[in-house]
Amino acid sequence: MSKQTLAILIGGLLPALLYGGAGILQKTASKTGIGPGPYILIIGVTATAIGGVITLVSLDTSVTWSGAGQTAGFAVLWSAAVVSIMLALGKYEGPVSVIVPLYNMNTLIAVLLGLLVLGEWEGVNGWRLVAGTVMIVAGGALAGTSVK
Q1: Is the CA virtual torsion 28, 102, 95, 81 positive or negative?
Q2: Where in the chain are the domains?
Q3: Which of 5, 36, 94, 129 could form a disulfide with 88 if both were Cys (CB 3.0 to 4.6 A apart)?
Q4: What is the distance between the alpha carbons of residues 140 and 57, in angstroms, rounded to a whole number?
């Protein structure tokens, strides 16, 4: 199996399955009465434990100030997004089948920033990217308007 195929399976298919299950757990957790602060704290403690195990197993303790800062920035954005989703699913009783497809349109933001900020525009097929973008927007629009 090629490196590219493994990258697609490990970085694409597996996270899709994991995030799908996580969306369901996020909805069920938000209905139990847990507050946003404890919710993020429990996620943080769990992620810290998993990070510790991965560090011990991989024996890779490399870190840079730049990497740490960018990781902290990721954590701030991710935490704000998770709290927003939790509130939408729990407090405002949004359906997971509508909310998840909408927030997964984040793909478009990542693609746009990848093209502009990281200069990835040189290595992509523009027509396929446009076609994919149209399908993502169509899917988000359909999901977002599917509530009866």
Answers
A1: positive
A2: 3-94, 105-148
A3: 94
A4: 39
CA 65 to chain centre: 24
pLDDT in tens, 30-50: 889 899 999 999 999 999 999
Residue 118 amino acid letter: L
Distances (CA, A) of 125 to 35, 128, 139: 44, 6, 21
106: tokens are: 């984040």
Task: Enumerate residues 6+ apart whose C-beta is below 8 A from 120.
Answer: 114
Residue with tokens 């009866």: 148
* Relative orientation angle of helices 65-89 and 14-30, to the nearest 10 degrees: 50
Q: Please name the residues in contact with 81: beta carbons below 8 A apart, sequence gap of 6 or more.
A: 103, 106
Amino acid letter for position 111: V
Which secondary-structure segment (H or E) carries 33? Answer: none
Residue 25 confidence class, pLDDT cut points 50, 70, 90 = very high
